[in-house]
Write a structure and sequence with these properties.
The chain is α+β, with helices and mostly antiparallel strands. The protein has 3 domains: about 1-85, Double Stranded RNA Binding Domain (2-Layer Sandwich), CATH 3.30.160; about 100-180, DNA polymerase, domain 1, CATH 1.10.150; about 210-410, Intergrase catalytic core (hpI Integrase, Chain A, Orthogonal Bundle), CATH 1.10.443. Helices cover about 45% and strands about 10% of the residues. The chain has 16 helices and 7 strands. The protein has helices at about 10-15, 65-80, 85-95, 100-110, 120-135, 145-160, 160-180, 210-220, 225-235, 240-245, 275-290, 310-325, 335-345, 360-370, 375-380, 390-410; strands spanning about 1-5, 20-25, 30-35, 40-50, 55-60, 255-260, 270-275. Strands 1-2-3-4-5 form a 5-stranded mixed beta sheet, with helices on one face. A two-stranded antiparallel sheet has the order 6-7.
Length: about 400
């Protein structure tokens, strides 16, 4: 066993012709430097005995760790060993603790934040804080098994929330798959892989009737001009809130057609929306507030995006006002279903008690919403896809604007 009076210069000069050799310090027994004959790499180590078993603990590499600091760390390790502790095991436990489910979840969700809608981000955060962190937060990721996932989601079903159980399972799958893709330490498998959804997933069918449209419109009045306009424009155009928030003045041409760029459209293709008289009236007050801004709904100077991106708080305020008038829970996305429902109802219903609609063809209503035409012709032979059914869309939105205006005024 090689020993030496270790000094800073001496450690720098040490060499070996063996595959690996350790030089032990004469000043501090148990402390040494291990040298690799192949790479020349030098690592400070300490050797000690705990419960009758010899253990070796790595302190750090030379020269990143100085000899003086390494010797001090060795003294501390030897002292802890004399007290019955195991420095090597403690280090493993600390390292393992850094690989908890909470750390994994935060890393994955942060990486996905920029490409995730605000509403989705908020929902994932609620699920994480309500169920996942309380259940698994401090646990090492490699300790969470399939049985843990099953017990968690089935427990959510038992408390009467089957849809939330489904969303929780999807989030668990997203987090573990994201961790695998990112090479998260100690994670080797997704315990929720190919698991079936635990609860039924009913399709949402909520839409607003005429009197509800009136209450929703009135409930936007107390909001600031931008929030008031963003909800009203979403209703009048039938477009997704994310696309409405990202509207730029330059996206509206001289013919009053709004081109939604592929980057902010769910279908990742340009989508054309003719603006009705009512939609343009919503935008008119904002033109006076423009002051050179690129976006119709600009964000604060310190915001992560240049345009408005968070409407959740305003939605909750507006919805609370409508609830006072008996309007049941609704979301901004329900505006799209509201448009299609009224648009495709017949103008002359078969029964006098049936609600009257606009009689717009379903494929035209789908074109307004940006749904792809399912026919082979559209998929393969429409060379100018963004302008598909543009004239029909203009007429549909003109009639829809008039329909909303009449509902707001209580006419019909």
């Amino acid at each position: 066993m090689a020993t030496a009076r270790l000094t800073a210069k001496g450690v720098a000069a040490l060499e070996t012709d063996q595959a690996q050799e350790t030089f032990w310090d004469e000043l501090l027994p148990g402390f040494g430097v291990r040298i690799s004959g192949k790479t020349g790499r030098k690592t400070y180590v300490v050797r000690y005995r705990v419960a009758g078993v010899h253990r070796r603990h790595t302190l750090g590499r030379h020269p990143s760790l100085s000899l003086a600091d390494a010797r001090e760390k060795a003294r501390d390790a030897l002292t802890r060993a004399q007290d019955g502790n195991d420095p090597a095991l403690e280090r493993q436990e600390r390292k393992r603790g850094a690989h908890t489910f909470k750390v994994l979840a935060e890393e994955v969700l942060e990486a996905k934040a920029k490409s995730t809608r605000d509403a989705t981000r908020e929902e994932r955060r609620r699920i994480l804080e309500k169920d996942l962190i309380p259940a698994w937060g401090p646990r090492p990721v490699d300790s969470i098994g399939r049985r843990d996932v099953i017990e968690l989601v089935e427990g959510i079903v038992r408390r009467g929330s089957p849809v939330m159980a489904n969303r929780t399972l999807r989030l668990v799958q997203l987090i573990f798959n994201g961790g695998l893709k990112r090479g998260f330490p100690t994670l080797e498998a997704n315990p929720a892989h190919i698991m079936d959804l635990p609860g039924p997933e009913p399709r949402r069918r909520r839409f607003l009737e005429r009197d509800e449209l009136r209450h929703v419109w009135a409930a936007t009045v107390p909001e600031n001009p931008y929030m008031r306009a963003v909800f009203r424009l979403a209703l009048l155009t039938g477009q997704r809130m994310h696309s409405v928030c990202a509207l730029r003045w330059a996206d509206i041409d001289a013919a009053d057609v709004w081109t939604i760029p592929a980057a902010v459209f769910k279908g990742r293709r340009p989508h054309l929306v003719p603006l009705s008289r009512e939609a343009l009236a919503v935008l008119d007050p904002l033109r006076e507030l423009r002051d050179g801004a690129e976006y119709v709904f600009p964000a604060r100077a310190d915001a992560a995006t240049p345009h408005l991106s968070s409407t959740g708080a305003a939605l909750r305020r507006i919805r609370a006002r409508t609830e006072k008038h008996g309007v049941e829970h609704w979301t901004a996305h329900d505006f799209r279903r509201t448009f299609r429902t009224h648009a495709t109802r017949p103008e002359d219903p078969d029964h006098e008690n049936d609600p009257k609609g606009l009689g717009i063809a379903p494929d035209v209503a789908d074109a307004v919403l940006g749904h792809k035409e399912a026919s082979l012709g559209f998929e393969r032979y429409t060379g100018d896809a963004p302008r598909y059914r543009l004239a029909e869309k203009r007429e549909a939105l003109r009639r829809w604007g008039a329909f909303v205006a009449a509902a707001v005024e209580g006419d019909g």
